[in-house]
Amino acid sequence: MSSLRVQYVRELTIRGRAATTIHAYVASVAALAKHYHRAPDLISDEEVRTWLEYLRRDRQLSGSTLNAAVQAVRAFQEWVLLRPRAQCARGIPRCRRETRRAEVYAMSEIEALLAAANPGRDRMLLSVLYACGLRRDEARLLQTGDLDAPRSQLRVRRGKGAKERVLPLTVGLLADLRTYWRRERAGRPGQDSPWLFQGVRPGEPMSKSLALHIYARAVKRAGLRRKGGLHTLRHSFATHLLEAGVEITLVQRLLGHASLTTTARYLHVTLGRVEKLTASLDGRTAGPLDLLAALRR
After folding, report:
1. What helix, strand, coil percent values describe the chain, rounded to 5?
2. 17, 123, 135, 136: which one is catalytic?
């Protein structure tokens, strides 16, 4: 490993970047160096711009992917090469991102999806994902110690950007989690494992691929059109809360968004549903937690 790579990893680690972020940033700078067959500290800003043009035009990478590479190179220049931040920003421009509107499932579709999932682990994983608006990794890496039953709360400790947040849990969802534990975990291999959702091997957390497989299988069994990956459940959670009249600032906190602008992207989904929004304000439309409570009856 080169000294520049070691320095970069150290700087990223000091700043508390997640392991996945460190890997992605280092990979981007390594790809730049490989493209020119030179060390990254010997590559000019103009060459970086030419590389970005190549990624956009020839490899047809998305704007978000290009911006991730831009951020990685800027961070390398600022923290390893000690260039002023303003100079890095001027020398390497960001790409305009495409606007992609998230699709969401209707409440009836969520009900069908959860009903189609295998009872036990599979249904509980999808229920927690939807009822708490969790990201995939936040759900699959939950530990039993993250559940605070006396206070009916779930503590998300492994969120994006290492930001911790506390979410409410209904009495019904807690009861379902206890039932799941008694039936599938108590007295079985891996009982002492801290992971709430185990993987194929006892004692290990559920893998990303297994979580996606559980979701895809439930979607197929329910006869639904697949509107996206597991993140669609998070999109649906946010949209249903807004339709139920929950303040957008509270939805922002529940989702763990640093910026309200990120949460506001869900408004476009609800603005076109005037009748549903009016009904929700009159108290006639259930929210995510109400749906899960109804499914238990």
Report:
1. 60, 5, 35
2. 135
Percent of the chain surpassing pLDDT 70: 87
The question of whether 35 is a catalytic residue gets the answer no
Q: Above 50 in pLDDT, residue 49? A: yes
Which pLDDT does position 99 carry in this prediction? 61
d(CA 195, CA 179): 16
Give yes or no for a contact between 154 and 148, defined as CB atoms under 8 angstroms apart: yes
DSSP 39: -
Q: Is 215 labeled as catalytic in the residue annotation?
A: no
Of 165, 231, 273, 276, the active-site residue reads: 231
Q: How many CB atoms lie within 10 A of CB 181?
A: 15
Is the overall model pTM greater than 0.85, yes or no?
A: no
Query: Would you call 119 helix, strand, or coil by DSSP?
Result: coil
> Active site includes 160?
yes
Extended beta strands in 216-284, E state: none
- The mean-pLDDT minimum among 61-65, 74-78, 278-282 falls in 278-282
Whose structure tokens read 């499914």? 295
For this structure, is 121 an active site residue? no
Distance, first Cα to last Cα, the chain: 58
Side chain identity at 22, as an amino acid letter?
A: I
d(CA 50, CA 44): 10
pLDDT, position 100 = 65
Which residue out of 155, 257, 273, 276 is catalytically annotated?
Answer: 257
Domains and their CATH numbers in the chain: 3-91 (1.10.150.130), 107-296 (1.10.443.10)
Active site residue 163: no
CB within 8 A of 58, min separation 6: which ones? none
Query: What is residue 113's three-state secondary structure?
Result: helix
